[in-house]
């Protein structure tokens, strides 16, 4: 079961329905303000006309980070507790759409996504402000970047040409030997890193090339910051 939690601003322009159509969800939570509550009800009714699904409207204080974050995390906890009480093994996953509302509301949803290790859906616009696509962003946490995944990124970051451009590792097998992991484990790590946007892959015949992305390099820089912070805390 997928639950999407979206913030609502004054200039909605169909953004919530756009993301729902592109990414899908089994339940929707609209976090609105007192001023946009009527718009939230309209969006709920429009979505329900196309099919039945649970839709909850949660009113927040738009300029209070603590209020928005608390209600977002409480919503997640409520759904998780409800799912645990049901007699099935279906897991509940969450997605956050912070494309609308105040910057405080967006920041709170980013934080909630990081706490719950959930995907963030952002609306991509053209030059005229029209929604044209959805960009998926995964929050970066220390727990997610395990030592083997970090070794994969470090190995790929060392592959550069004379101009400093990052080159492809020719195969998963070559990468596995470099990071001293089995083929299956390396393939799994690459698949996860690809889903997060940290590496890109390309199939060539029966082999798969791998290359680190700019986001992957940014993550490596973050690990160095984390290490420096930990060293400072130990002093």
Rg (C-alpha, Å): 21 Å
CATH topology of the largest domain: Rossmann fold
- What percent of residues are in strands? 15-25%
Give the strand order, joined by hyphens, for the main sheet. Answer: 3-2-1-4-5-6
Q: Give the helix proportion (percent range).
A: 40-55%
Shape: elongated
CATH class of the largest domain: Alpha Beta
CATH superfamily of the largest domain: Hypothetical protein VC1899 like domain (Restriction endonuclease-like)
What is the averaged pLDDT score?
89
Number of domains: 2
CATH architectural label of the largest domain? 3-Layer(aba) Sandwich
What letter string, H or E per element, gives the SSE order? EHEHEHEHEEHHHEEH
Distance between the termini: 46 Å
How would a textbook summarize the main sheet?
A: 6 strands, mixed
Structural class: alpha/beta
Number of strands: 8
Write a structural description:
With 235 residues, this protein is an alpha/beta fold. The chain has 8 helices and 8 strands. It has helices at 15-23, 37-50, 65-84, 103-116, 147-157, 172-179, 183-196, 214-234; strands at residues 2-7, 27-32, 55-59, 93-97, 119-125, 131-137, 199-204, 207-212. The chain has a 6-stranded mixed β-sheet, sandwiched between helices.
Keywords:
235 residues; alpha/beta; Rossmann fold; Arc Repressor Mutant, subunit A; 2 domains; six-stranded mixed sheet; two-stranded antiparallel ribbon; 8 helices
